Amino acid sequence: MPPRKLQITVPPFFRCPISLELMKDPVTLCTGLTYDRESIEKWFQEGHSTCPASMQVVESNPELLPNHTLRRLIQEWCVANQSKGVERIPTPKPPAELHQVKALLSEIDQKANKNVAALKRLRSMAKESERNRLCLVEAGAISILSGFLSCFDEAGDKDSLEMVEACEEAIATLALLSLDSAVKKQTVGASQICSIAFILRRGSLEGKVNAALLLHSLAEGEDSFKLIMGEQRDLITGLVGLLREDLYRRAVKASLMALLAIVTPRKNRLRIVEAGAVPVLIELLPEATVRNTEIILAIIEILCNTAEGRAAVTRHALAIPVLVAILRAVSDLATDHAVGILWAISQTAPDKSTMQAAVHEGAFTQLLYVIQADSTAVTKQKSADLLKRLHHFWRDDPCSPDNAAGGRLITHNLPLI
Fold first, then answer.
1. Which residue positions in the chain have pLDDT lower than 70?
2. How far apart are CA 248 and CA 347, in angstroms?
3. Least buried of 216, 237, 297, 399, by fewest C-beta within 10 Å?
4. Using the 8-state DSSP alphabet, how is residue 231 labeled?
5. Are strands 65-66 and 26-28 parallel, antiparallel or unpaired?
6. Which fold has domain 12-84?
7. pTM of this structure
8. Is 109 within 8 Å of 71 (Cβ atoms)?
9. From CA 386, how far away is CA 298, in angstroms rounded?
């Protein structure tokens, strides 16, 4: 069993003055004050030009000198307190330098398949720190990696394990880098999306996760990319398949984020429904985290803007019970989405069974509480509409408290919000 963590006092001079956490990579500014590298780099990236503790003005891009003595003292303290649950801090790697990254990028031959080693080193650099990621962007990594994905799409030997691995490494690195709108439009197109779709279908599980993360980054706020992605049936099928990896939470989360990013265009909604996403999403709900529940419901609500999406929801036996159970039980946002879905399917319910199921599961009472709670105006209005539609079924339900109370509950006077 791992050692039980005990209350322990960290020496004040081992804490970063910015984060107040134990320093992992202490560096000293020209002012003589020491900070954790990640914290002080973030400070300057946010536009500050002073030493945080002394407020002394420093030059732009100030030199950060590793404080090896302090780092060794911190490591020794961690080792001495391992029995109290303190983990030893590994010796940090030196940050990437621009010339090193450019040299590494020059090794990548976009038309060859012997790039795995160089691509792995680039990915390792990107994972280490935000400073390294900015260095990769400055060195032109996005353009080169994007070009590699384009060449992979055109390659005839996609079945080569080495080529697939190289493509996965390029995707994983791009997923770690910040892609602004200008860079996306200049370097990413249909061929790169095709390569990502290929990995979603044929790659390793980790490769598929990174592909989904990259799709989310590309699609966020970019309607043109959403449309290109929707044209790739393999891409949507791959994302839905990734949802089924429910034992690997990172896979489910990555797929949900990507689906939410691409779901808005109507063609995409239809293709997501055709790929069988609705049953998978519904079956994830009972065990989902709060955040995943909110994302799943947001996706389903958007899918319910189509007749196909509404039909897919009503066909699933678990849909109504789980939606009603979520009302007021998970979060305000989850309640908003659940009400939106119930309202959408009530507009065109194919038969009475859907409405009867909602009443039987307790939707009537829950919706009354939603109206009385601090809900949004839209949610209250939809809840009021739902109550009016459900009232007939409520009165006919033998389990209804309305019947037991002699029919005293009146809903036709519910206020419009």
1. 1-7, 110-114, 155-159, 349-351, 393-417
2. 36
3. 399
4. T
5. antiparallel
6. Herpes Virus-1 (3.30.40)
7. 0.78
8. no
9. 19
Match 């507009």 to its residue by tokens: 347
Q: What is the pLDDT of residue 412?
A: 43
Other CB atoms within a 10 A radius of the CB of residue 342 amount to 29
Q: What angle do CA 332, 334, 335 make, to 5 degrees?
A: 65
pLDDT in tens, 72-116: 999 999 999 988 888 888 888 888 889 999 998 988 875 555 678
Helical ranges in 329-412 per DSSP H: 332-347, 352-360, 363-372, 377-396, 401-404
Q: Are 359 and 385 in contact (CB under 8 A)?
A: no
> Which residues are CB-neighbours of 200 under 8 A, at least 6 positions away?
208, 211, 212, 234, 235, 237, 238, 239, 241, 242
pLDDT at residue number 397: 55
- C-alpha neighbours within 13 Å on the C-beta side of residue 321: 5
pLDDT of residue 405: 43
Q: Please report, for residues 150, 319, 336, 363, 369, the alpha-carbon distance to residue 385 in angstroms, rounded to integers and kept in the order given.
A: 51, 20, 14, 13, 14
Beta-sheet strand order (sheet of 65-66): 34-36, 26-28, 65-66
Instruction: State the Cα–Cα distance between residues 146 and 148, nearest whole angstrom.
Output: 5
In the chain, what are the domain boundaries? 12-84, 310-417
- Write the DSSP assignment of 274-314 as a string of letters: HTTHHHHHHHHGGG--HHHHHHHHHHHHHHTTSHHHHHHHH
- Angstrom distance (rounded) from CA 337 to CA 301: 6
